[in-house]
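At this stage, I put together one protein's amino acid sequence and its backbone structure tokens, which the following lines show:
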Amino acid sequence: MTRPVKATVFGTGSWGTAFAIVLADAGCEVTLWGRRTAVVDAINTGRTNPDYFPGVELPANIRATADPAEAAAGADFTVLAVPSQTLRENLAAWAPLLAPDTVLVSLMKGIELGTAKRMSEVIEEVAKVPAERIAVVTGPNLAAEIAARQPAASVVACVDEAVAQRLQAACHTAYFRPYTSTDVIGCELGGAVKNVIGLAVGIADGMGLGDNTKGSLITRGLAEATRLGVAMGADPLTFSGLAGLGDLVATCSSPLSRNHTFGTNLGRGMTLEETIAVTKQTAEGVKSCQSVADLAGRHGVDMPITETVVDIVHHGKPTLVALKELMGRSAKPERR
């Protein structure tokens, strides 16, 4: 008899917990690692994550631990679900504990500050594993809807298609439909840039601007992501799929989106410090907008919406001034 697939999820936040539910519903034996023993105990005894999904009962084949060595032992898939800017430090501590030949799976949608590296590049460097053992899960996957088992599709990407197919089988359920891809670069960039555009659309909503503005920002934001992706060797078609347009639409349209909500508060006139104070979860685009802009600069790619978000978020530029400057740029053909 074939043993169940063993999966470990490092991180008991909203997306880590939701993806653990998916893996468990797909038949995996799942271990959740959490830093705080109170959350670990609540998961093991009460079958809920009280911080994120207090009303959602977790499957019986999920257990939690605060011991990273215990969590990592024997895992076929090791899923990393921590804030992108903390990945390097966390993974450095976990790397010696990883099971031999485990596939490392990134749920993170960010670009590292300073290095401008994608999350799979950080994983490859820190864990010293080949790209063929690193996979990415991305797409329109708002965690609360996944935890409620509402229908959703996603992309699992790995340069080794066979590994992507293994992960696809490990997380395929009646409500979660994963597709495979070998375009890791495009999938990661789609996820990172959409957070920045989500901030921009949120700012516009907070300013009271309408659907024409939102549609324009989404479309031109997608053009920015595609330009950057092509410059870095990604397949442009990736950006018209779930990892690009699908994720972008969900992020820019939903009040469940952290980045959209963060941007809305900025657009209403709150300061960065005030907005951070009322935000309970990490809005990846707040820090990644700067690293995305840095990445674009390194590749000579023009990303005016991204640059505008950086100006508002990190340089304190008033939203009305930033909007006027963005709209006042020189006219050009759309396909450029």
Notes: The chain has a mean pLDDT of 95. DSSP finds 15 helices and eight strands in the chain. Residues 188-327 form a domain with the N-(1-d-carboxylethyl)-l-norvaline Dehydrogenase; domain 2 fold (CATH 1.10.1040.10).
